[in-house]
Design goal:
Blueprint (H helix, E strand, L loop, with lengths): L1 E5 L4 H12 L3 E5 L17 E3 L6 H8 L4 E4 L13 H21 L5 E7 L7 E3 L14 H5 L15 E3 L12 H20 L3 E6 L1 E3 L12 H10 L5 E2 L6 E2 L1 E3 H13 L6 E5 L5 E2 H12 L7 E2 L16 H7 L7 H10 L13
Parallel strand pairs: 1-2, 1-4, 2-3, 4-5, 5-8, 8-13, 9-12, 10-15
Antiparallel strand pairs: 6-7, 11-14
Helix pairs in contact: 1-7, 2-3, 3-5, 6-8, 8-10
């Protein structure tokens, strides 16, 4: 197959390129390289590179010419700094996706499409109240509660701390920051395109991805990268809240393999799928694992009890739909992955407004 990977020079995209190329496919990459000084040395030499932005309609038209499948990874990622980032997120994520879909429609594309989505579309995770056995949606966490160290969401009926549960793809969606809103809009745009054209779309909701080639020293990177950057500078990772917030950390090679399955399986699997390890771990646990792997001289994590209003408390995935319908289960061992990540070089930070 000839496959276009948008954002294929970035963290996740480049691992997808590696996996597809190793599988014998012809790969074309569309990437602005705004997050790089030049073509990165880790990008597969056998992949064709079109160095243009995803919002450039002519470049997109050239990139999709003759391809059998689209793997859409290009996006501005992370929580951002503040609401002033809103135009950059919308331009890269929403407008960029709209330009791609418009050009695919004009070209009467009839292949398949895989979209990089995210667990951030859920907002808070799934909860159950131990007091009244209800399963209410978690209410927003208010600054006064966070400042007082009340980090867990409370049952709105009996005011008992809610207990987290794994979240499934049919859960209520509640994006709670600009990045999350754009990722959900990408899903909506792609499934609207699918209904109009008949092109099957598979949206993979990545949970907390980590591994080699993550960007460093940027507020737009994931928490694993921020902790690794601190350790590389000889500083202690700073863990927000009480460190007990739960996430699902999934290795980038597993994420790449999920994309390969979605792109190449005999029958396209339309719909949304959690891509996760299936094993929840706390942010504090991840920080300790990374510090342990970094060596005896690494400074221990510091739990700060600071918070960010855009963060959610607990969100981790049920991997069952991906296992049953895609044939995907994560293989990478967490401790081995953290040991590898602790010594892997991090690439230069992503520029604001880029599509990594």
């Amino acid at each position: 197959m000839r496959i276009l990977v948008t954002g294929g020079a970035g963290f996740i995209g480049s691992h997808i390129v590696d996996a597809l190329y190793a599988d014998g496919h012809e790969i074309r990459v569309l990437d602005s390289l705004a997050a790089h000084d030049a073509r990165p040395d880790y990008l597969e030499p056998g992949a064709e590179l079109i160095e243009r932005d995803i919002t450039d309609a002519r470049a997109v038209a050239a990139a999709i010419d003759g391809v059998d499948a689209i793997c859409h990874q290009a996006a501005m990622v992370g929580l951002g700094v503040d609401i002033a980032d809103i135009c950059d997120y919308v331009a890269n994520n929403d407008l960029g996706t709209a330009v791609l879909l418009g050009q695919l429609a004009a070209a009467r594309f009839q292949g398949r499409m895989v979209l990089a989505s995210s667990m951030v579309v859920y907002g808070e995770g799934s909860y159950q109240c131990p007091g009244c056995a209800a399963t209410p949606p978690a209410p927003p966490r208010w600054p006064a509660d966070l400042e007082a160290g009340r980090f867990d969401p409370m049952c709105p009926d009996c005011e008992v701390a809610l207990e987290p549960r794994s979240i499934t793809e049919d859960a209520r969606l509640d994006p709670r920051n600009v990045y999350a809103a754009t990722k959900l809009h990408q899903e909506h745009l792609c499934f609207s395109f699918s209904r109009e054209t008949g092109v099957p779309v598979t949206a993979l909701r990545y949970h907390n991805v980590y591994g080699p080639r993550m960007p460093r020293d940027t507020p737009y990177a994931g928490v694993a990268s921020i902790f690794a950057s601190a350790l590389a500078a000889g500083e202690a990772p700073r863990v927000y809240e009480d460190g007990k917030q739960l996430r699902d950390f999934v290795h980038v090679r597993d994420v790449a393999r999920a994309n390969v399955l979605a792109l190449t399986r005999d029958q396209a699997a339309s719909g949304v799928f959690n891509i996760a390890s299936g094993t929840p771990r706390s942010v504090g646990e991840m920080a300790n694992a990374l510090t342990d792997a970094a060596g005896l001289d690494a400074p221990a994590p510091v739990t700060t009890r600071q918070f960010r209003l855009g963060d959610v408390r607990h969100v981790y995935a049920s991997p069952e739909r991906a296992a049953n319908e895609l044939g995907f289960r994560a293989d990478e061992d967490f401790n081995k992955g953290m040991a590898e990540f602790a010594t892997a070089p991090l690439r230069a930070g992503v520029a604001i407004g880029s599509a990594p």
